[in-house]
User: Fold this.
Amino acid sequence: DQQVKQNSPSLSVQEGRISILNCDYTNSMFDYFLWYKKYPAEGPTFLISISSIKDKNEDGRFTVFLNKSAKHLSLHIVPSQPGDSAVYFCAATGGAQKLVFGQGTRLTINP
Amino acid sequence: DSGVTQTPKHLITATGQRVTLRCSPRSGDLSVYWYQQSLDQGLQFLIQYYNGEERAKGNILERFSAQQFPDLHSELNLSSLELGDSALYFCASSGSGTNTGELFFGEGSRLTVL
Assistant:
């Protein structure tokens, strides 16, 4: 039972453009959502988070949007830079649930 | 550098064998989490320890076990290994026992079972 889904295994974006990564969840008990970034041969690192009481959180070039009614969140990166090329994991937690991760989306930024 | 150390980084072994993966959390962190990442899969939560005691269990097989020692380092023991156990095993730590979200991950231990 995949409670957190990232339906796009990969995404390719031109440098300078906006990257939009999507994530859907099924468990209505989730109340805190995070994005992690992972480079090859490294562990995931925390990028940005959002609480269910908000619908948007911004940190520099990164913005996370949460649509609770649709059980959907997205990560916007603008402008995209070559160093943003990585695998991005969406994660969620809430209630008694431990941090549940999606399958990841591999983002490639093309120069 | 997350401050979480995992050893070994790579491990190749045969089916039926037993291995132990080791994790040292960030200084001061009391919680240790183990996650498994198989090919094309997300990070699957296995187990959490907090200050030496098991706090939560996820999709951990009976052939797998873990413990957290008084110095807070943790070990994940995988026994009767099968081909399907080949994966990247991550350890993560956090300061609190509640899962408020931000975890600090090690670089992972890549296990290959032949």
